[in-house]
Amino acid sequence: MTRLELNDELTIVTAAETVERLKPYLATGTNLELDLSAVTDIDTAGLQILLVAKREAERLGATVTLAGTSPIVRNLLEFTRLTRELEH
Amino acid sequence: MSMDDEYGHALDVFVTEARDLVQDVEDGFLRLEGSSAGSETVNALFRAVHTLKGSSGMFGLGHIVEFTHVIETMLDLVRRGELAVTPEMVSALLPCGDHILNLVEGVASGRSQATPEEQSTSAMLLSRLEPFLPGAEAAAVPDASAAPSSEPSDSELDDDERSWHLSLRFGEDSLRNGMDPLAFLRYLATVGTVLDLQVRSDSLPPLAELNPETCYLGFEVDYVTTVPKADIESIFEFVREDSDIRITPAAEQVDSYVKLIGTLPESDRIGDILIRSGAATEREIADAMRLQQERSRSANAIVPLGEILVEQNIVPRQVVDAALGKQRKAGETRAQQDTQTLRVDAARLDRLIDLVGELVIAQASAGVVCMTDAGDRSGVAEAQSEVMRLVEEVRDSALSLRMVPIGTTFRRFERVVRDVSVELQKEVGLVVTGGDAEVDKALVERIGDPLVHLVRNSLDHGIEPPAERLRRGKPARGTLRLNAFHDAGSIVIEVADDGRGLDRDKILERAIERGLVEPGAVLTDAEVYELIFEPGFSTAATVSNLSGRGVGMDVVRRNVTALRGTIEVETSLGVGTTMRIRLPLTLAIIEGFLVGVGSRYFIVPLDRVTECVELPPGAIVPGVGSRDVMDLRGEVLPFIRLRTMFGIDGQPARRQSVVVVEQSGQRTGLVVDALMGEFQTVIKPLGPLFSRAKCISGATILGNGEVALILDVGPLVVGQTERERVLHAGATAVA
């Protein structure tokens, strides 16, 4: 289990960068724990990345779980009814 | 005729009469000042209001009855000399006339009750009348005004929450364009309640193919809100173009729409019914109609609008069915603007019927001549020319049915001038001349608004405040003249003021500032004054709430041009300005010039044609390459080859001709194969399918059964000038 901390904003501004960061872990089928406690902003681009990462991990028989969520992330997950799908 | 039809017909008559009565009422109000109690003016005014109230009562239009009742009471007091007329009272009464007209127009559009806004306007206007009424009567006023209409209004559902299903697929580039779908959803949640939200991630690719900046997610939202559908729609205004946004009434709401539609008045158009019920928005209907046209073109059959709405998930089928049930049956698909009834002078109608009778006789006798005098051509020709003469007379006579004196339009300016000069604290007298010049009714209606604009401009910017006028040695009271006269098949309407006139230098300076004119360019006076018709052009230092001279003048010009008219400015600094509008007498017939290109025919409006010349094969200006210009007596004349423009096959004639047309001082040649001469023609408007055809204003059918298109010279010339400018700019850039 590897823990990865995503900081600041998880938005279109950092999207490309975030994907590049995730790619090596996902490629090796590592079980990944994403810590989003320090995320200050999240938009559709950020949400997409979380969904893709989750799916990619499942495809390779690994897992991606959320280790922690900042209020803003939690709020979004609730609003989009994705809490269950992404947290576990 | 069914009961419903009879009622509808009677209501049409009511509306027509009520409009006339309101006009009488308004005139009466204006003349009230200075009339003594018991005078004919007061009596006539009282009768008009009384009649309005009475006939509204017959149709169960309680809201009009209540409102007019108070005014009637007041006028009755004036009539009996118990109440004195003051300018303040007239000022309070004038808007009541407008309000009654609004209520009548509401009835015309199918509403038999007042809307909440109308109710509050009624109450507000009546409360302003209250101070003029003696104590005993005043008590009765709130009674009449505050009595709320007991029946439910159409908009009842509007105040309630409605449920919607939103299906949102945002464009791929939304994120890149700075539009975050989640932000829209959060905003939605502030104007209503998001009951459920599902993220649709079907199009999300595997990680390797993911473009992090592309938007892949879609959303399905169950939503409850009190705002109308159009407001929900407008939230997505900025992403509409690339996205697929569908807003459908929720399934459980269907029954209430069906019920609501049941209470709406019938209409020719299903779209109107759906918009009125709130199930669809104007934009959705417009989009669906566009789709319908495209389909119809490719499938060669008309796809019902309702089907498209259902298929596009805009409106559920049951709601469409309910609206279809409400749609008025065949035979009444008249165009919206022609649904009004028209009052016609009985003598004119008699004359037309006489002529038709004569025509029938002449036609019959022509038949007899043809049968018996087969060998004698002169008899046939004579009979034929008699029929022709009668046909022409019948046509003129039929057209005259639509003719009304322009004075009816001018009358409303008494009011405009009064209101505006009070507002601006200026003294202005209105002088109307030529009010009996006759014009097509349709034209009168459509020229009204541009005229109001010109009049307001003159009052606001033309005529100086009294102090300034005195300083310049003019009388303190300004004069605005409205004049109309017939001139060579046109009607000319003049709006003239004795104000400060247009400042040529200031206009030119402003035009240069705005980049409309190159610095140092030499312009004629007419060209300079023409600049005030440019969009957004104004020389007014401060823009008043009335509009600066220039603001909106582009709209005036556009309206006038749409009526195939022209507008010119005559002005003299310090002395005054005259705006002169020249319009064709009728919209239905034009004097045209018939030309041929290949096997096709075109008609150029004759008043735009300045001359015809032969296309000189060697006269194309050398060295300009492919540019379509020729030498016309030493001047460069750009020309348009109609053959190329309309994609007509075949070889051009050996000797081609050029019809020189002029629009606002700009000349362009039209290259054609054959000139066929003048031709008086009845314009057939083109169907909505051709609404985007810019350079064609209509069509007509020639004697040989061929269709000829009527060219709209304005856009043709403008288009050509634009192309020239682009070409020229290109050539300069290369050099």
Automatic annotation (TrEMBL), chain A:
Ranges where the STAS domain occurs: 1-88
Record InterPro entries: MlaB-like_STAS (IPR058548), MlaB_ABC_Transporter (IPR052746), STAS_dom (IPR002645), STAS_dom_sf (IPR036513)
Protein name (database record): STAS domain-containing protein
PROSITE patterns cross-referenced by the UniProt entry: STAS
Phylogenetic placement of the source organism: Bacteria, Bacillati, Actinomycetota, Actinomycetes, Cryptosporangiales
Annotated CDD domains: STAS_anti-anti-sigma_factors
UniProtKB/TrEMBL annotation, chain B:
Residue positions where Phosphohistidine is found in the record: H50
One Pfam family hit: Hpt
Bias-annotated ranges (Low complexity): 140-152
Catalytic activity entry: ATP + protein L-histidine = ADP + protein N-phospho-L-histidine
InterPro entries: Bact_Chemotaxis_CheA, CheA-like_dim, CheA-like_homodim_sf, CheW-like_dom_sf, CheW-lke_dom, HATPase_C_sf, HATPase_dom, His_kinase_dom
Summary of the function given for this chain in its UniProt record: Involved in the transmission of sensory signals from the chemoreceptors to the flagellar motors. CheA is autophosphorylated; it can transfer its phosphate group to either CheB or CheY.
Name of the protein this chain belongs to: Chemotaxis protein CheA
Species of origin: Cryptosporangium minutisporangium
Organismal lineage: Bacteria, Bacillati, Actinomycetota, Actinomycetes, Cryptosporangiales
